[in-house]
Design goal:
- This protein has one domain: Gcn5-related N-acetyltransferase (GNAT) (Aminopeptidase), CATH 3.40.630.30.
- The protein is globular and about 40 Å long.
- It is an alpha+beta fold.
- The two termini are 27 Å apart.
- It has helices at 19-24, 75-87, 101-109, and strands at residues 36-39, 45-53, 58-66, 91-93.
- A hairpin with a 4-residue loop joins β2 and β3.
- The chain is built from three helices and four strands; from the N terminus they run αβββαβα.
- It binds coenzyme A.
- The site of coenzyme A has 24 residues, from β3, α2 and α3.
- Coenzyme A binds next to β3, α2 and α3.
Length: 118
């Protein structure tokens, strides 16, 4: 799953070919009870959402990643939907690189709306 960014628009923007490096930066504000992992029968993780706490009672979908071999099967949508289910009525944000179509479609399908550049 650490290769989730390989071949995506975000790979060339930094050291994103190793998703674990990016995720580490969010861990201090992580909300474990709202973060989900989808696992195979053998216990190997194939998709995950990481929720982090923002300011003023807001939350961020810090990351959603799916193993390259498991993309396009609804797993990314499923883990973010599970996160939103726990966060209930709270304000939830997500940052997406322009042109990251899978991520934009995933978030739009779950009700996120574009608010503009960060
Ligand atoms: C974004 C990401 C998590 C989506 O995971 P996934 O498990 O493939 O997501 P889903 O199968 O639930 O599909 C979500 C949407 O993306 C679309 N999609 C999936 N792969 C796509 C592709 N290669 N090109 C265009 N759209 C694609 C799906 O059709 C779906 O949209 P729809 O509901 O309108 O049909 C995955 O592509 C990924 O790990 N990307 C790298 C990490 C990243 O950029 N994360 C987001 C920013 S933190």
């Amino acid at each position: 799953m650490e290769r989730a960014y390989a071949g995506t628009i975000d790979e060339s923007l930094g050291d994103n070919s190793d998703g674990a490096v990016e995720i580490a930066g969010w861990r201090e504000r992580a909300v474990p009870e709202a973060s989900f992992v989808a696992i195979k029968d053998d216990g190997v993780p194939v998709a995950a959402s990481l929720v982090a706490e923002g300011t003023d009672n807001t939350y961020w979908i810090a990351y959603v990643i799916t193993d390259p071999g498991w993309k396009g099967r609804g797993l990314g949508t499923a883990v973010v939907a599970a996160s939103l289910g726990v966060l209930d009525d709270a304000a939830v944000f997500a940052g997406v690189t322009d042109g990251n179509t899978p991520s934009e479609r995933l978030l739009t399908s779950l009700g996120f709306v574009r608010t503009g550049p960060a």
